[in-house]
Amino acid sequence: MSSSTAPRGSLFSGIGYYLLALIATAFFAFPIVWMTLSSLKSDVDISAYPPKWIFSPTLESFRKLFTELNAMDALINSAFIVCLATLFAMIAGTLAAYGLARFDVKNKNFIAFEVLSIRMLPPMVSVIPLFIIAKQLGIFDTPWLLIAVYTLNGLPFVVWVMRVFIQEIPQSIEEAALIDGCSRFECFWRVTLPLLLPGLAATMVIIFMFAWNEFLLASILTSSEARTLPVIAASSIKAKAISWGLGSAAGVLMSLPVVVLVLLMQKYLVRGLTLGAVKG
Length: 280
Fold this sequence. Notes:
Blueprint lengths: L1 H38 L3 H4 L13 H8 L3 H32 L5 H10 L5 H15 L5 H26 L2 H9 L4 H12 L1 H16 L3 H6 L7 H6 L9 H32 L5
Helix pairs in contact: 1-13, 3-13, 4-7, 4-10, 5-7, 7-10, 8-9, 10-13
């Protein structure tokens, strides 16, 4: 009797887990599906009640996005700014993390915490001084201003996370490379860096998403020449109405690069996110 009920109980338990997983997936996927469908609806279909699930798709919202709001220029600005900021933050942060993890630096744990504490500073505290400095230096509304700001914003996170990943790599591997005649830089480039690829991929995706979705600094530190996609997306919200189709189209356009990046990096992403989770 007990032997027959045990498989039945495990079967029901497995079905329950799958149902919970499906419910959670539907809960998180529904806004994305709704946004995608709204971007393909006309204004009449969007405002229809009850909602229309069967409709004639149209690209009118995307046409307005590119013709009236110059989304192509914003897309190019976002790609240029975010890619360079992510690259600079990853290079500088990884080198700094390697120094804190491998070299005998006095009070290095305190230094690492102080670097991380910069992330605790609300952006609103620094945006006004940055605005004044940018005006005085003549770099307001330029991509290089946002590149510098996004690099400095992402740097503490890269240093803190990559330091943990580097500490997970046995130091004896580097010592063996040093004995074989490698310099410290060659040891880092040829031995440590290839082992850090999962951690680098996971950290890069997170830094890219932080910078790609950033709105506050981009809205205040730019005017017309260096506007990014989040600023364009906010233009769909007017004083007296909200253009839901335009906003949904902007949301779809903003989501595509992140989705493509995650798909390209998924080989390393899961391993990188769990690499430093357990120590010992």
